[in-house]
Design a protein that fits this description.
single chain, seven-stranded parallel β-sheet, 15 helices, 13 strands
């Protein structure tokens, strides 16, 4: 491949350590090792993953955008792309998808790939803007078949412009982590813990988890709920917890850097989400080998079924979520066997090498179709 055609640009809203951001960093660093020439553009001022990219010799340009409505950012990014002259631009997340595709048109970037990471059920206008600007997109990469189906039926994107590449996980990082010491939360060695990880937002279903767990916590003073993450619902959750008799058994941990260790220490991982794309945290729980109960939202069956079919519960139902939790807690041996099988699946199907192979293959195909690669 001509060196010029190995130039690939990535654009994302910010570089904080979320699922999409980690995927971008893994992809950019991995392609760099494979001889591509990636350059990452961040619309905001940066984030925690900038250092990781720089250490891998991946150039990072942060544009410092304060509002996505600032059309000047499109012009600035277009100027940057015109100077770099990448053969392909890959964007991640809604705002970067819009800004990136418009800037790519202005800069004459021949191939534009947008990432679709969630079935957007809250801001329907996102779907409208995404559909209206599809003329500027060569291909959309969805993280699950469920998201691809949603993008076609609800988003109106033609099927031929939808590809599916699932997330990946660093299995060794989670499988080999040492279990966290939970005594700092007043949790003893004989206690059992339910762990949830995610932004404190309505989508993630933390209120549903508390509703489901409440009777169990009332009955068992040695059962605890750990919730790792930050977000706009923190104050409301704190208020609900403080008012409950089981309040001392629920712990809001805030942002944590030791998620692998927390997963290895937990009795059960719970994903109570109301909608998703392909939940990275569930994939991480699989890699950690911790039993899990998950709402039947986008991407979950593609991760858990058929080995973990009994771990999947209807979304939005506290009663069903509680029943799933009780099933696992009442039969820990069976749950551990399922968790082991899912850990093997995470290694076989969702390793980083699979993600890199899939994206590199897609990029090569799209560039070839545009006459930018030799046959």
């Amino acid at each position: 491949m001509n060196s010029k055609h190995r130039r690939v640009a990535f654009c994302i809203t910010d570089l904080d350590a979320g699922g999409a951001e980690r995927c971008l960093a893994t992809l950019a660093c991995g392609l760099k090792r494979r001889g591509w020439e990636p350059h990452v553009y961040c619309l905001s001022a940066g984030g925690a993953l900038v250092d990781r990219l720089v250490e891998a010799n991946v150039p990072v340009t942060c544009l410092g955008m304060r509002s996505w409505r600032n059309i000047g950012t499109v012009v600035t990014l277009a100027r940057q792309l015109r100077a770099q002259r990448p053969a392909l631009l890959q964007t991640f997340l809604f705002h970067a998808n819009l800004v990136g595709r418009l800037a790519a048109v202005m800069a004459g970037v021949p191939v534009v790939v947008s990432g679709v990471r969630v079935a957007e059920r809250e801001r329907r206008w996102h779907l409208s803007l995404d559909r209206i600007t599809q003329w500027a997109v060569t291909m959309n990469v969805c993280v699950s078949r469920a998201v691809a189906n949603f993008s076609q039926t609800a988003g109106g994107i033609p099927r031929e412009k939808l590809a599916v590449i699932p997330n990946c996980v660093d299995v060794d990082r989670f499988r080999n982590a040492s279990p966290a010491d939970l005594s700092e939360f007043g949790i003893g060695p004989g206690d059992r813990t339910l762990l949830a990880v995610g932004r404190l937002h309505r989508q993630k279903g933390h209120r549903l988890l508390l509703e489901a767990a409440a009777p169990l916590l009332d009955r068992d003073p040695h059962l605890h709920v750990l919730i790792a993450g930050e977000g706009p619902l923190r104050a409301a959750l704190q208020e609900s917890i403080a008012a409950a008799s089981w309040g001392p058994q629920v712990h809001l941990l805030g942002p944590r850097e030791d998620i692998p260790q927390l997963m290895r220490a937990a009795t059960l991982f719970v994903l109570p989400s109301l909608w998703e794309g392909m939940p990275n945290v569930l994939l991480e729980a699989m890699a950690a080998g911790v039993p899990a109960v998950a709402s039947d939202v986008e991407g979950v069956r593609e991760l858990l079924a058929p080995a973990g079919e009994k771990l999947i519960v209807p979304p939005g139902s506290a009663e069903s979520l509680r029943s799933g939790i009780e099933t696992v807690l009442s039969d820990p041996a069976s749950a551990r066997k399922i968790a082991h099988d899912l850990q093997v699946i995470s290694q076989e199907r969702f390793a980083k090498s699979s993600l890199l192979d899939s994206y590199a293959g897609l990029y090569n195909e799209l560039l070839k179709n545009r006459g930018l690669l030799n046959s």
